[in-house]
């Protein structure tokens, strides 16, 4: 497995504080992560995968619902995972180094898969490879919970959105031009529900794999 050095290896020590500051004007990061976990309707025996888990905040938050199940966070950045591992000693949580475009899991293994703020980081090709991998590892009745940037309506919100996007690279501009729903449909997902949050700058899409 080839794991390239990622820009997140550099960002890792500051990532959690950056997220806390970014979410502060809209109620705080904990509230946001809790909302995402609730929307996933996790059951106590579920197997959860958090793809591109970063420092594992959602992987850990989602595990609060588990009594028998497990929560796995996978990420390309060794350093993000080091931070993630330092945040929890829960034996139901595991963090794994890996690439989302070729994941080390059997087909049909997971009840829930999270992709939060990951797709906009990926090139168009790796984005589709990742979504097809997610589809492969999800159980036929499993759910994908995808969370990412959304172009809001309204002048003021768009100014804020553009300011946020200034921090991002070409992949993110390509992603927002295409839109989350279109990306998911291209990879064989059916959209169940869409919610907008963080002043409509972020969309949360719940989708299930279309039967083959
Ligand atoms: C913006 S962070 C989001 C982290 C986390 N999901 C969150 O909500 O805070 C994007 C994460 O995706 C990871 N990532 C990027 N490309 C990846 C890939 N091909 N496979 C696995 N992880 C990847 C990065 O290392 C980084 O930790």
Describe this structure as you would to a colleague.
The chain has 212 residues and is α/β, with parallel strands linked by helices. The chain has a single domain (7-209), classed as 3-Layer(aba) Sandwich (Rossmann fold). It is built from eight helices and seven strands. Helix 5 (124-137) links the parallel strand 4 (110-116) and strand 5 (138-149). The longest helix is centred in the first third of the chain and has 17 residues, at 7-23. The two termini are 29 Å apart. 37% of the residues are buried. The structure holds S-adenosylmethionine. Residues 6, 8, 19, 52-54, 57-58, 75-77, 80, 99-101, 116-118, 121-122, 126 line the site of S-adenosylmethionine.
What is shown here, in short?
This protein is an alpha/beta fold. It has helices at 7-23, 29-39, 57-62, 78-86, 124-137, 155-165, 170-178, 180-186, and strands at residues 47-51, 70-75, 93-97, 110-116, 138-149, 189-197, 202-209.
List keywords for this structure.
212 residues; alpha/beta; Rossmann fold; seven-stranded mixed sheet; 8 helices; 7 strands; 40% helix; binds S-adenosylmethionine
């Amino acid at each position: 497995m080839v794991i390239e050095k990622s820009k997140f290896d550099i960002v890792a020590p500051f990532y959690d504080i950056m997220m806390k500051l970014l979410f502060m004007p809209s109620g705080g990061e904990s509230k946001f992560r809790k909302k995402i976990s609730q929307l996933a309707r996790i059951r106590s025996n579920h197997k959860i995968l958090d793809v591109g888990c970063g420092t594992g905040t959602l992987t850990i938050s989602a595990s609060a619902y588990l009594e028998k199940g497990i929560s796995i966070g996978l990420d390309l950045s060794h350093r993000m995972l080091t931070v993630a591992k330092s945040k929890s000693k829960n034996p139901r949580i595991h963090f794994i180094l890996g690439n989302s475009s070729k994941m080390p899991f059997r087909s049909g293994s997971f009840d829930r898969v999270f992709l939060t703020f990951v797709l906009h980081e990926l090139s168009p090709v790796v984005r589709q490879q990742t979504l097809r991998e997610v589809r492969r590892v999800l159980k036929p009745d499993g759910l994908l919970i995808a969370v990412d940037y959304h172009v809001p309506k309204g002048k003021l919100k768009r100014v804020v959105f553009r300011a946020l996007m200034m921090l991002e690279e070409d992949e993110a501009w390509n992603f927002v031009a295409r839109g989350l729903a279109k990306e998911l449909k291209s990879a064989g997902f059916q959209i169940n529900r869409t919610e907008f949050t963080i002043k409509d700058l972020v969309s949360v899409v719940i989708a299930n794999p279309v039967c083959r």
